[in-house]
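Ticket closed. Logging final result for Aspartate phosphatase.
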Amino acid sequence: MGKVLSSHVGMKINEWYRMIRQFSVPDAEILKAEVEAEIERMEEDQHLLIYYQLMCFRHQIMLDYIHPSKYQPFSVSNLVDKIENSNHELSDMLHYYHAFFRGMYEFSQKEYLEAVKYYRVAEKQLSMVFDDIEQAEFHFKVAEAYYIMKQTHVSMHHILKALEIYDQHDAYSIRIIQCLFVISGNYQDLKRKDRALPHLKKAKQLASQIDHPRIYSSALYNLGKCYGELGYREEAERYLTESADLARKEDLPTLPHTLYTLAKLLFRQNEQSHALHILEDGKLAAKKHEDQLFCHMFDYLDALYVQEINEKQLQKTIDYLEKLSLYSYIEDISLEIATALEASQQYQKSNQYYQKLLWAQNQIQEGECLYEF
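Final structure:
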């Protein structure tokens, strides 16, 4: 049997990547197997072998997003080591893919500053990317990271670019839904929750038309969170509960976050018994999914609402968030702690947390200047 042309395998990897971007797991798995069979008979091409390794990396990120506990044939970190320890110099496009995919991996690990660092490296090669869907992918992932970091206007700039491209193509409904999540989240951060709600209703309607439990659970979660911030407590509790039930049924890693938001809503409504039940459920879920962030966030809820302001534990949570540069979380909980202390007439301590809130806001603003020049 003769050698397979590397150009032929390269075209098949491109098609494989197209299926990955569409979250089409069966098609992606088939193409991955075909590529692996052909690589065994392929003429020597080191660039293409690195492209294949990068695509394995991206393939695993897709699988981890859809259902982490189901698809874990090997460690993504091992793939990272294998690619980065290669002595072969990367071409511009491979350099782009390496930085972009590494940014996605760091984001999945909640290392948001690291993710942005790699995205900025990828951005330097973006002029080499002529595929408009790949351009949209880049803008979406950058917008997602900046949204988490509360760099609202930067996030909105990128997400609208991404959505404009996705809207022109069929088969990208999941990304369109995710764009709507980010747009609505940015509107909520801009204190325009009224403008956020229509996007979330549209996202839920689109999510109900596809077979993707994680996306539908996220649509329910985002609606519930928004209704809670608008003061519609019954609607908020209903959607958050539905989201948590689906996440539990499908064993989704989003469960701890959903239970955290639901528990906080219930504590604020003085539904102590129900809130305590959700809090304990959330602690177990965070441990099961090895979610260190929400292990700390549940400890925070316990310290604030159950232990009636355990300042030592509250400070431990803030120290953890500072270590990860999660200033948006520090901003939110500092306000909650300050308000609780003020309500108990501990004005001096309350003022300390208001100062912490202002410090966190300043860190967020400083984060808007991430340029090296």
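Residues 131-187 form one domain. No further action required.
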